[in-house]
Structures are given as structure tokens and as C-alpha cells.
């Protein structure tokens, strides 16, 4: 469990969780409104 005490690994794991949570919320909420986060990146 020493990897969890490594701040670099902790930050990486936190980022993965944060991005995953954002994507999930974005998919559920914005999908209902016919919007999508990725439309920002579409041509």
C-alpha cells in the first residue's frame, strides 16, 4: 500500500476519479437536455 503514500500516484488517481465522475455526470445530465460536453470539440 506504499503506492498510496506517494503524492504523485495519489494525484493521478484523484484526477482519474475526478474525470470519470465528471464524464458520468455530464453524460447523465447533459444527455437529458440534448447537450453534450464533447460538442465543444466538434467541428
Give the domain tally: 1
**Percentage beta strand:** under 5%
Q: Low-confidence stretches at least 5 residues in length (pLDDT < 50)? A: none
Element pattern in H and E: H
> First CA to last CA: what distance?
45 Å
- Counted beta strands: 0
Please, what is the average pLDDT?
78
Helix content: 55-70%
Main β-sheet: number of strands, strand sense, barrel status?
none
Describe the structure in your own words.
This protein has 43 residues and is mainly α. The protein has one domain (3-42). It has 1 helix and no strands. The longest helix has 26 residues, at 7-32. The N and C termini lie far apart (45 Å). The model has no long low-confidence stretch (mean pLDDT 78).
Brief rundown of the structure:
The chain is 60% helix and 0% strand. By secondary structure, it is mostly helical.
Defining traits:
mainly alpha; 43 residues; 1 helix
What is this structure's SSE topology?
Blueprint: H1 7-32
Amino acid at each position: 500500500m506504499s503506492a498510496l503514500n506517494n503524492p504523485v500516484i495519489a494525484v493521478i488517481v484523484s484526477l482519474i476519479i475526478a474525470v470519470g465522475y465528471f464524464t458520468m455526470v455530464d453524460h447523465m445530465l447533459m444527455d437529458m437536455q440534448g447537450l453534450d460536453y464533447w460538442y465543444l470539440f466538434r467541428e
